[in-house]
Specification:
Two copies of one chain form a homodimer. Helices cover 31% and strands 24% of the residues of chain A. In chain A, α2 packs parallel to α3 and α5 packs across α6. Chain A is an alpha+beta fold and 406 residues long.
Amino acid sequence: MNKSLIKNSLLEDIKISTIFSGIKKTKGNEEDLLLIELEKNSSIAGVFTQSLTSSASVNQCKQNIKASKEPTARAILVNSGNANAFTGKLGEQTVLKISKYLSTKLNCNINQIYTASTGVIGEQLEAETIIKSINMMSPFNIPDWERAATAIKTTDTFTKVSRRICKIDNAEIEIVGIAKGSGMIAPNMSTMLGFIFTNANLSSQILQKLILSSNEQSFNSITVDSDTSTSDTVLLVSTKKAKHKPINQYTDPRLSEFKTNLTSLMLELAKLIVQDGEGASKFITIKVTGATSKKSAKIIAFSIANSPLVKTAIAGEDANWGRIIMAIGKSGQRAERDKIRIYIGNELVTKNGMVYENYSETRATEHLKKTNIFLGIDVGVGKSNATVYTCDLTHKYIEINADYRS
Amino acid sequence: MNKSLIKNSLLEDIKISTIFSGIKKTKGNEEDLLLIELEKNSSIAGVFTQSLTSSASVNQCKQNIKASKEPTARAILVNSGNANAFTGKLGEQTVLKISKYLSTKLNCNINQIYTASTGVIGEQLEAETIIKSINMMSPFNIPDWERAATAIKTTDTFTKVSRRICKIDNAEIEIVGIAKGSGMIAPNMSTMLGFIFTNANLSSQILQKLILSSNEQSFNSITVDSDTSTSDTVLLVSTKKAKHKPINQYTDPRLSEFKTNLTSLMLELAKLIVQDGEGASKFITIKVTGATSKKSAKIIAFSIANSPLVKTAIAGEDANWGRIIMAIGKSGQRAERDKIRIYIGNELVTKNGMVYENYSETRATEHLKKTNIFLGIDVGVGKSNATVYTCDLTHKYIEINADYRS
């Protein structure tokens, strides 16, 4: 997409402000605080980290969404530089203090305030610093998504924004999303965040079903280093300004174009996170077919995607397919040895439980020299598929993560 | 232990031979084939990889042990350099051909022949090469365990032998074990193997219970890189020559000294494998206490031990305990945030859901500069413990595994 400011947006009633608050300790006073103000009626849905040590902000967002059948949002506040995770009761009070302040300022219920924090774990976040900064913030004339996405970056090396235009009935619908994340997580400074906005007139209940489904095929289909953050958050917000007839069912066929576009936008953001994977030199697509169920296909695909031996082999451009066999084997999922087919790019590697007679390691290696790697695996026991995305494991990953904080 | 030849062994009736067969393609014609011949009455038990793509040899050993209530063994044949894994029906025929040959030569049932192969995956192992080499082998005068352990090495940088002397009643009992493995697995050339021998007069059924229990606390409590081999095998063999009264029950208290010694021997071998972990610069002990069950404690411990972010932090001597919190959180096991206590060495890091007031990062970092690292984690919800062992994740691991085969 065009990285410049989006004009003529259908989401102009969303107010965006960013500021440098000083929470993120980097050279050059980079902006580290984002405030998104929403009009009264905005619907909201969210998906969150499965971690049992989830952060205070994640717990608050979850509560807000659970608090009513049709939750609404008035503000989303995101800071980078400090995750406010594992900060005990004090950390919870900080979230409460900030949310209270914002709800008074915006004259709304505290349940309508959503916060997200990423950065260092275990250090207290100062509510006063945030509140002081909020007071100095003023919204841009039109939503600057690029700048919003920049303010939430931590170890990210580039800004992640995606946009789609589609239709519901004859109404024009815009979807804009911003994201951050570079290690699937590096709890120090990373974590995955995504915030998606649309003008489609959809209830929070329908948004929740939409985000669950699209998330499964996008953010839940990527891995950088198999580690899970305490703060992962994806929110989907609607201004409800589009003038189409009401949609009361998630299954309404009038939603299908929107669904496709939402999934494609979320997948684009998810892939950008993998591309920005710590130390990544290659983007890897792993498609598993012939599994007994979608879940099984995904477990096998992730077993391959998370294997350090597979990831280092690809970093070394080594067509070491034995490691893929190993990763299938350790997944614990059904697969039939003599029916397993492995493809590196278009090159068929195995057939009848052994190496394929026409397999050319030269051709496979040729494919591995590219930046975009495709691994296809048919496990030969069923009809279900899954695709996951990951990156290779390089010296640079070790550098970033062994030497990061000190 | 003394690395030299063991004299006055109680296991002198075990015949060991080694030879260079040429299967392992290394400079210097290192020995790569080990044959252990056992007397007729020898009992045997085994534990094997959980991988669903296990090798032909593993499948054969499993079948042998299942074939009767009281399986016996006449020979164990181990080659390094070729794993004979993912070699299809041809690979199975190779195992059959070699076993048939050996059983004819030793005048025994084919069920009494056990084989193990490690090395490159997906290349056919030539039965003829093995058979020709067997014909040229002749046993040492007394068992040379050191040389036996050397012949089964692949990427191992040192030979792994362990020995214990204990008693059952007044009879002197010897236990000797050899092992190989350096990546928990690198399917190319690694895999974990262990072969343990004793003169204790124990049935195969009792041996099986012994090996299961000791394995859980030793080989099943280590990880180098979370990857599981297609060929992992541990066998426990008894010559039954010791002159103690029969032991008919696994629970017989006269076995307790033997149990302790067997577990300690297997744990020593397992720790040697971790110490030899690919690229390892530090040995890490992770003890989880206060969990709801032993299983839960072990899952949490492995979640920490397998986290690339924890492993790289330790490689970088960085007291980045937030990554330990993350790993506890992603394990999916019960833990109570406000009761979690993390120790780095003796240094208490967290209390009441946040960093402990007297925590000194300087002292924690001091501990991380050592070669032997201890991480203690109490999750505050129960009374069960588990300890696992691992190593750090270094640049050298990437070097070895990205550049290995090519």
